[in-house]
Fold this protein.
Amino acid sequence: MPIDQPIVLTAAQARVLGSLIEKEVTTPDYYPLSLNALINACNQRSNREPVTDLDEDTVRMALHGLEDKGLAGRARNADSRVTKYEHWLGEAFNFTRAETALICVLLLRGPQTPGELRGRTERMHRFDELTDVAAGLQKLMEREPPLVAVLPRQPGTKESRYAHLLSGQIEAASFAATPVYAPAAGEGVDSDRLARLEAEMAELRQEMAALRQKLDDLFA
């Protein structure tokens, strides 16, 4: 059912939803996810900011809350001895692949610049140009109600950061004091390249995690 009212997710619900969205695209052979796989996805060390240590009860409660909001719950067509879980973002918002990738990474990693988003969404959707990222963000900002907002630019930065609004309105002041690394004169930093290398490392970690989860499911 399409959602046309503001949604306010808890931090745990945002992490669970983002993890389900990510795994559907990056590890489709293991999706929908068992509860153990979902907990591991929420707490993995790569592609997460902040890193969490959610326990089973917290994840179950988050799933119940997401089900009440029509965003996720038990997989409807899963044929397995183990209960599996899936997200229903497509039914709720009818996102494009670009919009899905952007929302997913914002849910999992918090406010980011278009350059960071371009590198970190690569496994889910390839943006050829930064203008394509900007266009996707603009569509999310123009939703009713808006799902993304641009934050005030921080001192020493060239790009503004964007944040999702699925957990409510963003208090800009809460991000204003975040320390920002400013490169010294002559010190070049290619944020796109760093983000791409980070994504490649994360891909290797996720493949290993998927193999471990497959073994866990076989012996569950």
